[in-house]
Each structure stands twice: as structure tokens, then as C-alpha cells.
Amino acid sequence: MIIFGTKGYLYQLAILTLVCGRCGNPAAHTLRKRVTKFTLFFVPLFPVSTKYATQCTFCGAEQKVTREQAEQLQAQEAGGPGGQPYGQPQRQPYQGG
Known about the structure:
Blueprint: E1 4-19, E2 26-40, E3 43-56, E4 62-65, H1 67-78
Antiparallel strand pairs: 1-2, 2-3, 3-4
């Protein structure tokens, strides 16, 4: 008898400040990587699929992103200009003068 199946793993890659496409608020978004691995006798052997997504911490909306976009967001969070939004420009407060 052979026991096989799949198991999912969720990794949090970064926390970014982005403008949400659903609620429009500049809020923290978690960048997540979901990996599904093939298991044999409950031992994970190799990845079957990998998916990336961001989730708004304000409204909970989740948006799928590609691997390339996820890498860009990670690089932006690590050493790029902080607080740059992804997708939509962030609104700056009016400074009269």
C-alpha cells in the first residue's frame, strides 16, 4: 500500500505599504508565496505548484501577482524607495504654499 497526496505551505515574504485596488486605502499588504508539494508517505518530495499573492490588511482583498512582480516587490521592500505603491499611485497630502 502506497500513501501519497499533496500538502500546502504558506510563506510570508514581505510586508509592504501599498494602495489597495479594492478599498483605495494606503495600507500594509502581506506578500505571500503558496507552495503545494507532492508527498509520499507524508514526506514532502517536490513542489507541484507555486503561487504568489498580496493581501490587504485593511479590507482583506487578495490579488494574485506573478513571480516577477513578487520579486520586484521584495526588492523594493529590501532596498528600494520605501513606501512606493504597486499598481496605483499613492495620494500625497496637499501642502499649500
